[in-house]
Write a structure and sequence with these properties.
This protein is of the alpha+beta class and about 220 residues long. The chain is about 55% helix and about 5% strand. The chain has ten helices and four strands. It has a four-stranded mixed beta sheet, covered by helices on one side. It starts with a strand and ends in a 24-residue tail after the last helix.
Amino acid sequence: MTMTLHWSPRSPYVRKVMITLHETGLLPEVALQRSVVALHLPPNAAVLADNPLGKIPALVTGDGPALFDSRVICEYLDLRAKAGLFPAEPAARLRQLRWQAMGDGLLEMLLLWRTELLREAGPWQGITSGWQAKVQATMTALETEAEDLAGAPFGIGQIALVCALGQLDFRWNDADWRGHFPQLAGVAAAWQARHSVSATMVQDDQPDAVDVTAGQLRFSAG
C-alpha cells in the first residue's frame, strides 16, 4: 500500500473517493485510517496534521503534501490511473464537472440542513426553507437530465450524484425522492448495479438516538 486515506463509513464525501478507487482499480494501494470528524466535535489532531481544514477525506500519497477535498483527490486518482472519469474532451469534461457541482452542492445542503436541525435552539426556518426550495429545484433539474445522465459514460459527475442521492436514502429516507422523480430513480437503479456503488454504501457505525430529519424534507412532483 502506497497511500493512506482518512476515512469514515458515514461520510458521503469519503464515499466519492471510495467509488473512484474502485473505478480506477487503485483500492489495493490505499490503507484506510478511521477518522472521526464533526462540526460539533473538537478538531481531530491526526486529520489536522494532514489537512489543516480538519476535514475528511484527506489522502496521504507519499509523493508530496496530503491532498484534501474529494474533488481534488478524485481527480488525482483518475490522473494516476488514466481511468477517464474526468474526460479530456472539453465538452464532455465540462458536463461531468457540472454534474459533480450539482451532486456536491446538493450533498452540502443536506449535510448543513441536518446540522442545523441538531441545534439546541432549534433550526433557523429562513435557512431551512431556502434549502427546501433549492433541493427541490436541484432534484427537478436532475429529473429532466436523467436521459443524459444515463447515456453519458460513468464519470465523476455520476459518482457525485450517487453520493448525494445516497445521503437522501441515509438521512432523509422518508422523503420518497424516487416516487417524485421516477426517471432519476431509474438511472440511479442502474448505477446501483455497479460494484463500485454497491460496495461503498454509507454505513452508520455510530447510530443517533433520534432521527432529526424525519418529516423535514417534502418533495412535490418533479
